[in-house]
Amino acid sequence: MMSLMDSEQSLNVVQKKRYHFKPVHLQVLNQIFVALSLAAAPLGCFVVWRRMAYFGDATAHASILGVALSLAFALPVFIGVLLIALAMALAISALQARGQTLDTLLGVMAHSTLALGLVTVSFFSDVRIDLMAYLFGDILSVAWSDFLWIGLGLFLVVGLLGWRWSALLTCTLNRDLAQAEGINPKREQLVLTLALALIVALGIQIVGAILIAALLIIPAAAARNFANTPEAMALIAAAFGACATLGGLAASLHWDTPTGPSIICCAAALFFTSTLLGALRGHGLS
Prior knowledge:
This protein is mostly helical. The protein has 12 helices and no strands.
């Protein structure tokens, strides 16, 4: 029988080797992380401009229910999370149209769906589930086949935003002006909702449900201190997001820290630095 000391030594060896990758694997991881940040950054700008921070957070919390749905019907996690994220976003939009206040709806839906997801997952006693991987991300839980879906999904998000950028921006600035130009604000809201749901579904296994909203918001909030135009803010946010993901991944590999939280810590450091520099310059895009 293995002694307690031998068990501790084995555990230490596993922990030390946890984030050791071959160079080719590390290159692919870098590309996936950068692609996620590049797709999330312009979307995060709209989240900041429209004051939808808690909307993204609520959608991300609901993704745990998507994990439970995937287990119940033997679906890929990506599909289950995407369906629940879309349903959550559409339900909030519908209830808001009926006169419910947005902050109340977000609070009720976010916590209810997260609790329901955790309770539902607990019924699958015959399935081994690492909830921490879905809450805070675990790059080791992502299969190589998942990277293909993530790449295709990120390409779709970027293409969708590029296609509808002008219309989304007009609706964000002035809904009346958008309607005068023949743009349907409800349709553009649906496009934004779809993009948010895709990002949440794609990012849950990488940075986790709790932190995906932070990856949307923090780089965009940091970029606002240096941008004069919406396009400049989106580009700067993408650069900040890429720096945060590469820095977080490097820190995770070096110090054996969780990947998702390491990325968000780097993003937060960029935000506080940019806020300080922005205050000194007295400059920024509100």
